[in-house]
Amino acid sequence: MKWIMVAIIVGSTVLADVLQSFEMKRHTVAVEDLRPGRVAGMLASLARRVPLVVAVFFMAISFFAFMKLLSVADLSFAVPVTAASVALETVLARVILKEKVTAWRWAGALSVACGVALLAM
Amino acid sequence: MARGQAVRVDLKTKLLTIFVVCTNVLGNFSMSWGMKHQAVDLGLSPIAYIRLIFTPWVLLGTTLLILWLLSRMTLLGWADLSYVLPMTSIGYVASAVLGKVFFGEVVTWQRWLGTLLIVAGIIFVGLTSANTTTLDTSSKQVPAR
After folding, report:
1. What are the tens digits of pLDDT across the range B81-121?
2. Per-residue confidence (pLDDT) for residue A54, from 0 to 100
3. Alpha carbon distances (Å) from B39 to A70, B36, B42, B53, B58
4. What are the beta bridge partners of residue A28?
5. Contacts with B11 (C-beta within 8 Å, 6 or more apart), sequence order
6. What is the C-alpha to C-alpha distance for residues A16 and A54, in angstroms, rounded to an integer?
7. Across residues B46-52, what is the average pLDDT?
8. How confident is the model at residue A78 (pLDDT cuts 50, 70, 90)?
9. How many alpha carbons fall within 13 Å on the CB side of residue B45?
10. A59: Cα separation from own chain's centroid
């Protein structure tokens, strides 16, 4: 059960993150839109963007799977193990989102992935 | 992009990154605290999950995680996904520390080594530019309504 939940969390998180990054890059949120008087309008605007709605759906799946995981595993296991998505998402960031992933960034992602693997042991 | 504007973009990105990490760590901690003190058997029934969400600690955790979701969404518009992921990984370290301090979880040498590797990874990524795809973030903003 534990590893099934981990697989669901990682899979849905990867899909949600790529969709969010793709859509938020197309229309960024300005600092001014984070002011109290403008947040509601900004949220309404976000809610009309289909890729973000789909991303939130995947985040919801990830959230409930995470709740289930927390009920059967330690916090110090549950949180780090879900970061297995870091390496996969870095590859997708390069391939799909066309980000410039430099050697430093690859090294960083690899280091984080190894660290997460050790934390999960 | 003018240098002054670049510095401002960099500062707001860093401040938002800190906010994203804090809401994530505190949200996960509250959720975990709530789950550990409820002793509810979660099956596949959605009723059990919904009932659990409205308990105080889980509700606090859920609220913080909603804030985390929205702030992270904003951050993903300002910075690369391949930048955001490692930079926010410090949250994993903080969760391990909170797990040890508040829940008495065992943190072995492997976990401490893992922590060091995560910190090293964050430093590596911190040496790179936050955004390599859309440098001018003011050109395509969501219209406020």
Report:
1. 878 887 887 887 787 788 788 877 777 888 788 878 877 88
2. 93
3. 11, 6, 9, 14, 13
4. B141
5. none
6. 7
7. 75
8. confident
9. 8
10. 8
- Residue A8: pLDDT band (50, 70, 90) is very high
- Hey, what amino acid is at B142? V
Query: Which residues lie closer than 8 Å to B128 by C-beta, 6 or more apart?
Result: A102, A104, A105, A108, B83
- From chain B, the residues in CB contact with A112 under 8 A are 85-86, 89, 117-118, 121-122
Plot region of A98 (φ>0 → left; ψ -120 to 50 → alpha; else → beta): left
Chain A neighbors of B116, CB-CB under 8 A: 115
Considering only the beta carbons, identify the residue of A17, A45, A78 that sits closest to B142. A45
Cβ-Cβ contacts under 8 Å for A41 (sequence gap 6 or more):
A33, B144, B145
Of the candidates B35, B128, B133, the beta carbon closest to that of A70 is on B35
* Residue pLDDT, tens place only, A40-58: 777 777 788 888 899 989 9
Q: Kindly state the percentage of chain A with pLDDT values over 70.
A: 91
Q: What is the DSSP letter of A31?
A: G
Please list, in sequence order, all residues whose beta carbon lies within 8 angstroms of the beta carbon of residue A74, skipping any fewer than 6 positions away. Answer: B99, B103, B105
- The amino acid at residue A103 is A
Q: How far is CA B60 from the centre of its chain?
A: 15
Mutate to test the interface with A, among B124, B128, B134, B136 (most CBs of A within 10 A): B124
Determine the Cα angle at A47 with ends A41 and A51, to 5°.
Answer: 140
Q: Tokens standing for A27?
A: 């229309």
